[in-house]
Amino acid sequence: MGAVRRKDGVADLGGPGPEAAAGSVRFSDEEERGNDMSVWELIIIAVGLAMDAFAVSVCKGLSMKKMSWKHAGLAGLYFGGFQMLMPLLGYLLGTGFQDKITGIDHWIAFVLLGAIGANMIKESFSGEEETDASFDVKTMLLLAVATSIDALAVGVTFAFLRVHIILAVCLIGGITFVLSVAGVRVGNVFGSKYKSRAELAGGIILILMGLKILLDHLGILG
Known about the structure:
Number of strands: 2
Shape: elongated
Helix content: over 70%
Strand content: under 5%
Order of helices and strands: EEHHHHHHH
Strand order of the largest sheet: 1-2
Structural class: mainly alpha
Radius of gyration: 24 Å
């Protein structure tokens, strides 16, 4: 087996050197990072998902005769807590069949986010939602589950995308907590003026994010 001589007189056995190997690894890492969902994209999705909880919190604040920060914090804990839990459950469910649908994962993300967004827009044009002033466990659990079902579906889409799930659920839960507390205050001071606008904005945000994911996958935005 003869070695190939380079001009500098050093033997080259034909294999890639350590720098070349390192370069290929770096390229691979950069390529993978390019597919990651950014923190700003996660924040935008979190705000969109939180709009349902914000709208219900506005109704809660509207039904209160006097502002109670204790109740506002309670609403934030219920809604924020379930908004953290549901995407994580959806992610775990999605990873179970992720490998089977890799070729159409971005289409699934687009359809789910689009459907959720369209439903939120539809709800924003529906009649006024009646919410009582009760903050008992049963009432708050039902409302928390109802406002976080969309987050469960979004969690499924996270399983098909390159998402840091712990960061994602923390952002979703934290932003929902803040907006829920703010929603109770807004409802108590301004009434239901901003409820429909919040749902409309949330729906538009989710549809646009779903469209961006699809266009990225098709190479139109890349």
